[in-house]
Amino acid sequence: MTNTVWIKHALLATIKGQQGPRSKEAMSELGLIEDGSVWLEDGRISAVGTTAELEGKYADRSAEAKVIDAKGQLVTPGLVDPHTHVAYGGSREDEFEKRLQGTSYMDIMNAGGGIHATMRMTREATEEELVEQTTKRLNSFLEHGVTTVEGKSGYGMNLETEMKQLKVMKRLNAEHPIDLVPTFMGAHAVPFEYKGKEDKFVDYLIDTMLPEVAELAEFNDVFCEKNVYTPEQSERILEAGKKYGLTPKIHADEIVSYGGAELAAKVGAISAEHLLKASDEGIQAMADAGVIACLLPATALYLREEAAQGRKMIDSGVAVAISTDCNPGSSPTVSMPLVMNLACISMRLTPAEALVAATYNAACAIKREDRAGSIEVGKQADIVLWKVKSYQELQYLFGVNHVQTVWKNGERMVG
Ligand code: NIG
Ligand code: FE
């Protein structure tokens, strides 16, 4: 039996509310309980209520539990990061300087750097080296209150290295406390040997890679972008993935408006990512089709671009999730707390919406809402105690890691 933990006297943001991706007013459903209490047992949440209620229920078992007095501080579910490229080799700080001097992200990529540079470093890295590097990042995610992380392949762009990345994620999902959810992203860039022959690479990806990677992945993602994959090529890849049971996701309208949001609605993607340049029609199509917008305000900041229109998307009825996009080029961060701050500052989400976007809606974007994203009986005991007295303060005091304690499956991991 694992630890039994009894958290008392917390301001509990349970995020309990409407089932399924939340949009409009439901994005503000925090399920707040003042002087709240949670009982964690065998890795699960066994009871949630006021401290007085749980004192009644557990009066004769209080000696069994490690009691934590939250002293009125905020307690939330473990944060969920639904979009990362966490399992990569090497580092690209040289490009950071180049970009500051004026070279664009896409120019660097088209000249063989960017994603191609990380592809080379990831191809060269052994499985052990990738496990070691990725473990450090996952540890840091935990320290920032994140207990579930999606991770994409896509720095191999050949069968061997895509499989290596997916195996690393499978291993870490088993060995590391964080739950790691695998996505195949073979269409992350066009490998140099296929420049001008993009359709040939799409054939290779569909005929050779998909049948092999499908057993190691749950989602299939494509960089649908001008000079990368067209909407037509992206659609072929995503439709082919569906035949292997892979759910579509799309890096859509990140650099230019390219019909990515519209395509997400057309293929029934669970989420569309980035959306900095999404068209009004695309936003409406996503709302109508129930596609979650996975917005990445740290990436926009890091690329010195205008953030996505988060406020407008919520007002248009789109369910919004937020994520770090943790990757070595456009967003080298693991800080979901910073991403929540930025969601408020640069996309005008309210503090409550930002919290739902980083928990329940994020879990929906990776099909984990049955076990993560809210504090409800039966779910995994993934809980964060924050050094703040309100959820507004969590979003207001920005750029700081307010984590005090993190429990993952009921085990104390941080603090
Ligand atoms: O989500 N846009 C494409 N992919 C990543 C960046 C990957 C990289 O630069 O290494 C993104 O921003
Ligand atoms: Fe990304």
Automatic annotation (TrEMBL):
Q: Where is the Amidohydrolase-related domain?
A: 74-412
Hydrolase as a keyword of this entry, yes or no, is: yes
Instruction: Identify the SUPFAM superfamilies for this entry.
Output: Composite domain of metallo-dependent hydrolases (SSF51338), Metallo-dependent hydrolases (SSF51556)
Q: What is its EC number?
A: 3.5.2.7
> What cofactor does this one take?
Zn(2+); Fe(3+)
Q: Which pathway does the UniProt entry assign to this protein? A: Amino-acid degradation; L-histidine degradation into L-glutamate; N-formimidoyl-L-glutamate from L-histidine: step 3/3
Q: Describe its function.
A: Catalyzes the hydrolytic cleavage of the carbon-nitrogen bond in imidazolone-5-propanoate to yield N-formimidoyl-L-glutamate. It is the third step in the universal histidine degradation pathway.
Protein's name according to its UniProt entry: Imidazolonepropionase
Lineage runs: Bacteria, Bacillati, Bacillota, Bacilli, Bacillales
Q: Encoded by which gene?
A: hutI
